[in-house]
Amino acid sequence: MDTSVQLNGAILSSNASGGVTYQWLDCNNGNTSIAGATSQSYTPLVNGSYKVVVNNVNCSDTSACHIFNGIGIAAVALSNSIYLFPNPSGGKTTIDLSKVLHNASLRLLDIMGQTVYETMGLSGNSFFLDISTYSKAIYFIELSDQQNVLRAKLVKE
């Protein structure tokens, strides 16, 4: 079975095909399965090392770990514009920005990119977010107005 993986831009793709299933794993996190990452291709949300398990009716095989550094310089510059504390958080988090937003929206996304919370009409450069009722997980915060889109990762303990 072909366990090779190609990197095309910011997408990792398994070369295996023909009646197989896929499960992408995070090599930097004890080879844990990435929830919902069961397609032939996977677009990582953070830089790291990833591999894929390929299954068919008769057997299962795993690729080598592949280093992904596709988030790039833009993400580093962007991360300097938004500060979350505490992070990891038990639930109550302060969001401070290096710029003022006007009539902005705040979205909280789960690891699959699904919006789990959203609020609009925010203005300022400091906001409070309470996720104490949410499950322990990795979330992404996205603040946007007409000129800016700011993103950061938030870990809920």
In short:
The chain is mainly beta and 157 residues long. The protein has one helix at residues 72-79; strands at 5-8, 11-14, 21-26, 32-33, 41-42, 48-55, 60-62, 66-68, 82-85, 92-109, 115-130, 137-144, 149-156.
Word description of this protein:
- The longest helix is centred in the middle third of the chain and has 8 residues, at about 70-80.
- This protein folds into 2 domains: about 5-70, Immunoglobulin-like (Sandwich), CATH 2.60.40.10; about 75-155, Immunoglobulin-like, CATH 2.60.40.3080.
- About 5% of the residues lie in helices and about 55% in strands.
- It has one helix at about 70-80; strands at about 5-10, 10-15, 20-25, 30-35, 40, 50-55, 60, 65-70, 80-85, 90-110, 115-130, 135-145, 150-155.
- Strand 3 and strand 4 form a beta hairpin.
- By secondary structure, it is mostly beta strands.
- The chain starts with a strand and ends with a strand.
- The radius of gyration is 18 Å and the shape is elongated.
- Strands 3, 4, 6, 7 and 8 form a 5-stranded antiparallel beta sheet that branches. Strands 9, 10, 11, 12 and 13 form a 5-stranded antiparallel beta sheet that branches. The protein has a 3-stranded antiparallel beta sheet with strand order 1-2-5, with no helix packed on it.
